[in-house]
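Supplementary Methods S3. Complex input for the zinc ion-bound model.
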Amino acid sequence: MLRIAVQSKGRLYDETMELLAQAGIKFPAVKRTLLVPSRNFPVEILYLRDDDIPDSVATGTADVGIVGMNEVLEKCQRVKVLHQLGYSRCRLSLAIPRDVAYDGVKWFEGKKIATSYPRILKDFLMRNGINADIHVINGSVEIAPGIGLADGIFDIVSSGGTLVSNNLVEVEKVVDSQAVLIGGDCQLPDEKQKVLNELIFRFKAVKDADGKKYLLMNVPREKLDEVVAILPGIKSPTILPLADENWCSVHSVIEEANFWDVATRLKEAGAEGILVLDIMKMVP
Ligand code: PRT
Ligand code: ZN
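Predicted complex, serialized as structure tokens:
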């Protein structure tokens, strides 16, 4: 049984459980204990606070974990990133009051910076040859400059809305983050490694299908070349004969973002009965 450490509640929880569900891994509907085995796959979830996930994997309490890259970098444990999961994207940035003139990273020399990520900040300041006073606070970092506790902050930014509502402006992006699957340093026993390989294989299939749609349409044979030229398919499209030999059925996969543009051009080129279907998984 492969043990996966997952955030028990918070920003990572919903999307992590959704990813596991899309990977076909089922859990009991109600979460009664901290350790919950899957109903249909040899994994169990250990629910933890996100701060504790890198440590749980480094010490072997869990075999793998799903956590934000920001926590992995801050905790600096002996863990490695096995797979980037692509959700909970954010960045760690330096921000200062909006009405202050900023002339580059040297501005922070001798300043006081509030953060919950002292290790990543210290590393950044060192690389830039800056001496600043790091003031560690957990939670509500963004209010520190407003109440005179610090000159600037180093914190997670996603939409930027929190900075705006606290009269702050982002001046340096230090690192990007997203949810990642992490593993420990040691080789897993064969049985667990096999389960982990299968898990990563399924995660990739879910991610590959994300944002893609399956497209079907009927095309007059004489318009086939024109229609095929429009399709930005993954490989060449599938072309099937229809009962009426002057027509054929064309199937392809497209990016959802391109759908309306592509659909309009397909219609103009002579395609009819265009159908768009969801893709649940894509196995290369
Ligand atoms: O209880 P536990 O310790 O498990 O959870 P937590 O409160 O420490 O973490 P949680 O659930 O808030 O976040 C978990 C992870 O989600 C983080 O470690 C990041 O990897 C990721 N993530 C993605 C974010 C955000 N986006 C985010 N916007 N984490 C926090 N924020 C906060 C940020 O701190 C700031 O206050 O949202 C605010 C900024 O958001 P914008 O959109 O206004 O810029
Ligand atoms: Zn936390």
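Residues 7, 10-12, 49-51, 68, 70-71, 88, 90, 142, 155-162, 177 surround phosphoribosyl ATP (ligand 1) (CB under 6 Å). Residues 144 and 154 are 11 Å apart (CA to CA).
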